[in-house]
Amino acid sequence: MTETTPETTEVLEDVTEESAPSNFTTESTGEAAVGAGQSAIAPGYGTGRRKRAIARVRLIPGSGQWTLNERSLEDFFPNKLHQQEINDPFTALDLQGRFDVIVRVHGGGPSGQAGAVRLGVARALNQIDEETNRATLKKAGFLRRDDRIIERKKAGLKKARKAPQYSKR
Description:
By secondary structure, the chain is of the alpha+beta class. It contains five helices and four strands, in the order αβββααβαα.
C-alpha cells in the first residue's frame, strides 16, 4: 500500500469541495474559438466525394459560421461525431473560426456526406495556402479520397456476394 506523508495530506487538504468543479460535461461550448494557426486568409473552393455523396465547399474569410444546404451545422449534422469529422482539417491546422464555410452537398447518407464535406474543406484549405497547409493535411490523410463504394449486385446472387443456399439433391 502507499504511505501518506505530511506533504501529500497538505495537498489533499488544499482541494476542497468548494474549489472542485460542480459539474462536468463532454459537450463543447457554443462559441467557436479562433485558432492561432499560420495560413493565408483568402477565399477557397474544394470538391469532396465519399461513397455516393458529393460536396461543393466554399471557404470565405469570416467568423467560423457553417452553412450546409442553407442550414446550420447542428441542424444538418446532429451527430457530434460527424460535426467533429468535418471540423478535423481546421483543427489539424489550428484555423478554427477563421473561415465561413458554405457547402452544397447531395447524394449518399449522413456518414458519406460528412466524409465528402471533410475532403472538400481539406482541398479548399490546400488551395488557399498550399505551402503552409499541404504537408499537415497530407500527413493527417485529409487529402486522400476514400474510394470504397458499395459493390453492385450480381445476377444469380441475392446481394453482391451472398449466394442462395446450396442444395445437394
